[in-house]
Design a protein that fits this description.
By secondary structure, the protein is mostly helical. It has five helices and no strands. It has helices at about 1-15, 20-30, 30-35, 40, 55-225. Keywords: Coiled coil.
Length: about 240
């Protein structure tokens, strides 16, 4: 703004005659001349004019003042338009800065999203790998389960067969024991009967033996008695 004011004052000085420059300088320094209305411009005190100037010179000076005023108005209009242009450019600059900030934020978000996408892709790959491993393990588990079920069925069949065989052997053993018990019972009865018969026979044999022993004793006694009459007890020795 100071620069524009100095330019206006410099332009006004160039358009003012040399005889009036000294008397109008103070007015230009206060900027009254460039901002005053036209009727005030006409009522400038006569003391600001030189005494030797004629009316023609005064008219010339008035036209020069009008031209200078129009020039100043144009410069002011240009300054206003420039200020408006500067304001518009500043607003556009702020808008561009806002857009740049938004673009930077979007770029940072895009980079972060790209990083997140890469991480997501890596996690998806890891998940696919783990899913494949899980499917392989499930297939192996199914195979092992099938094998275990088959082995269990075979073991149950063998166990049932062994149980049936054991039951058969147990029945056979019971039958054999029963037969043996019956045989032992028959043999015991037969033994008892045989023992009873043996006792009778033994008793009969003992009776016969006893009689024979007595007869033998008597025979010997008589023999010794007859052979040895002097010793009657010799036969007892």
């Amino acid at each position: 703004m100071d620069y524009e004011a100095r330019e206006r004052r410099r332009s006004a000085r160039k358009n003012i005659p040399s005889s009036l420059s000294s008397s109008i300088t103070s007015v230009l320094e206060g900027q009254w001349f460039e901002n005053a209305p036209q009727h005030q411009m006409r009522s400038v005190p006569s003391m600001s004019q030189s005494w030797h100037e004629t009316g023609e010179h005064r008219a010339d000076f008035g036209s020069q003042r009008a031209v200078s005023h129009a020039h100043v108005n144009r410069r002011e209009s240009r300054a206003v338009s420039l200020r408006e242009r500067v304001g518009q450019l500043m607003r556009e600059n702020r808008s561009l800065q806002d857009q740049l900030a938004l673009s930077n934020a979007a770029l940072a978000s895009a980079r972060k999203s790209r990083i997140d996408n890469e991480r997501l892709n890596r996690l998806e790959q890891e998940k696919d790998t783990l899913r494949a491993k899980v499917e392989l393990l499930l297939a192996k588990i199914d195979q092992d389960t099938t094998s275990a079920c088959t082995a269990l069925a075979d073991a149950n069949a063998r166990l049932e067969l062994s149980r049936n065989e054991n039951m058969m052997y147990e029945k056979k053993i019971r039958d054999m024991e029963e037969e043996r018990r019956e045989m032992y019972l028959v043999m015991f009865k037969k033994g008892q009967e045989a023992a009873a018969m043996d006792l009778k026979e033994v008793a009969q044999v003992d009776q016969m033996t006893q009689d024979r022993v007595v007869l033998r004793f008597l025979h010997d006694a008589f023999y010794y008695y007859l052979m040895n009459k002097g010793d009657a007890k010799e036969h007892l020795q």
